[in-house]
Amino acid sequence: MSITLLKLKKMHNSNEKIVCLTAYDASFAYWVAEAGVEVILVGDSLGMVVQGHKTTLPVTMDDMVYHTKMVQQGNHQAWCIADLPFMSDTSIDMTLRNAARLMKEGGANMVKLEGGERVIESVAALSALGVPVCGHLGLLPQSVEKYGYKVQGKDSESAQKLISDAIALEAAGAEMLVLECVPAELAKEVTKQLSIPVIGIGSGKDTSGQVLVLHDMLGITVGQAPKFAKNFMAQSSSIQQALTTYVSEVKTELFPSEAHLVG
User: Fold this and answer.
1) Among 99, 117, 195, 207, which lies 20 to 30 A Cα-Cα from 241?
2) Assign residue 207 a region: left if phi > 0, alpha if psi is -120 to 50, beta otherwise?
3) Residue 79 bridge partners (DSSP)
4) Is 90 helix (H, G, I), strand (E, B) or coil?
5) Which residues of 232-251 are buried (b: 16+ CB within 10 A; e: fewer)?
6) What are 165-193's pLDDT values in tens digits?
7) How far is residue 184's CA from residue 206's CA, in Å, rounded to a whole number?
């Protein structure tokens, strides 16, 4: 049975944890979905884990369309979110055109864009046209050259700004939100304030669900894996077992644990 946005909202409303994982090709997408992952994110993280770049910034729209299409060739049941890459959403018209590409050419079910106040008008324009939108707040990989890879929202002013941005994104029509690397208490408060699902990464366990980069949870990260990640292959005899264990631990709130807090 295919996962729909309505199904995800029902899970959120009934406090059932939503399991999300990245994938970038047909084979992994198939096994990720088979393991029971409800949401596949075709993230611009592919720039680092697939293409070997140091950041996500070099990823192009063509890259995102290609990988989204490949994922949807293998995925037959999970909800698929695709990232709008760096500088692909600098105007409303550009955002609409590129979102259309992800959905028409790539087959995505939903598009994700980073930022708060900056993207509110684009979110509203997409939503008005029937495009499901996922926001992204906290650590913003596309802004890493300016802000770096560090926990966001640690002081009261930035925490309140993040909460305000989250509320504004929902009001503009966002149907889901990713919170990356924010203190667990702040993530809990954001989740409480919103009526839409909030998917955490490095933000504690009190969000509506969790997402990890596939390569991090399989222990094949090149270099140092993020503190908030867990190598599920270390306790598994196969990739399929690692995937199902990840699903189980998110559902039962074993993951993330205190060891995976970042702020």
Assistant:
1) 207
2) beta
3) 39
4) coil
5) bbeebeebeebbbbbbebbb
6) 999 999 999 999 999 999 999 999 999 99
7) 7
Spatial distance between the Cα atoms of 210 and 246, rounded to a whole number of angstroms = 10
Say if CB 179 and CB 138 are below 8 A apart.
Answer: yes
* Spatial separation of the C-alpha atoms in residues 214 and 221, rounded to whole Å: 9
Tokens linked to 66:
């290609």
Catalytic positions are 180
For residue 198, report the phi and psi dihedrals to the nearest 5 degrees. -115, 120
> Other C-beta atoms within 10 Å of 145: how many?
9
> Cα separations (Å) of 120 from 83, 98, 136?
16, 16, 12
- Residue 112's φ and ψ, nearest 5 degrees, are -120, 135
DSSP states along 42-72: E-TTHHHHTS--SSSTT--HHHHHHHHHHHH
- Interval 8-45: pLDDT, tens: 999 999 999 999 999 999 999 999 999 999 999 999 99
Strand partners, 200: 179, 210
Radius of gyration of the chain (CA): 17
86 touches 59 (CB < 8 A)? yes
Q: Tokens 């909030």 label which residue?
A: 198
C-alpha 229/C-alpha 246 separation (Å) is 11
Task: Give the pLDDT band (50/70/90) at residue 110.
Answer: very high
